[in-house]
Design a protein that fits this description.
Cyclic Phosphodiesterase, Chain: A; alpha+beta; Cyclic_Pdiesterase
Length: 219
């Protein structure tokens, strides 16, 4: 995801009203230089926010509630062009969530098809180039090889994942909208005051309605 709005809804950058489903990994926040909370994307983009009604929230709550919480270990760096990321192991629990959501809403194509069938689960640490020929990130981080060497002593990072977040693109930033608990039936709606923060081109995080509980920090 990027900082500007797209008018036709195709490819990059982000579109106002986009939503995404992510899991936050606050234990990895000290390592991240990507301008967003540490997270692993379940699906970006999901449905336009205008389509995310009470029925959709209820279905998401039931879907995620049927999956148990899980633990991940982040101990190895990987690279996409212009991107440094961490591999979450095991990755199967995240893949399972993605498969279920895209199976229920097949029109929600991962990354709008820019990366074919999508990307493997990853936690973005830093970005020096925007995807799809978008050029360098203004004021981007130091060279990725140097950054990886600096951060390596802090690995591995382990985290327990208990929540999936729906987030919404508004203007030039993303905001938390709803949080869905893993391994629990839906609870009543909890709303929160929005705020925004610049997001990352390779992933996202959170939203508020039936099947949800109070969301975490905004982007």
């Amino acid at each position: 995801m990027t900082g500007n709005a797209d008018t036709d809804g195709g490819g990059w950058p982000d579109v106002d009203g986009d939503t995404a489903l992510t899991v936050k990994v606050p234990e990895a926040d000290p390592l991240v230089r990507a301008g967003a909370p540490a997270h692993i994307t379940v699906l970006y983009p999901f449905l336009h926010v205008s389509r995310v009604d009470a029925r959709v929230h209820g279905e998401l709550g039931e879907l995620f509630g049927a999956h148990d919480p899980f633990e991940v270990s982040l101990g190895e760096f990987g690279r996409y062009p212009g991107v440094l990321f961490l591999h979450p192991l095991p990755g199967d629990p995240v893949r399972a969530l993605t498969r279920e959501v895209t199976g229920r809403w097949p029109e929600a194509e991962p990354y709008r098809g820019v990366f074919g069938g999508g990307l493997e689960p990853h936690l973005t640490v830093a970005i020096t180039e925007l995807p799809d020929g978008g050029g360098p990130v203004p004021g981007g981080p130091e060279p990725l090889d140097v950054l990886a060497a600096e951060l390596a002593p802090a690995l591995p990072v382990t985290a327990r994942i208990t929540t999936v977040h729906l987030i919404v693109r508004e203007g030039t930033g993303w905001r938390d909208h709803t949080a869905y608990s893993l391994g629990r039936p839906p609870s009543r709606t909890t709303s929160r005051t929005p705020s925004s923060r610049r997001g990352s081109p390779y992933g996202l995080s959170s939203a508020s309605a039936a099947g949800s509980r109070s969301a975490g920090t905004d982007w």
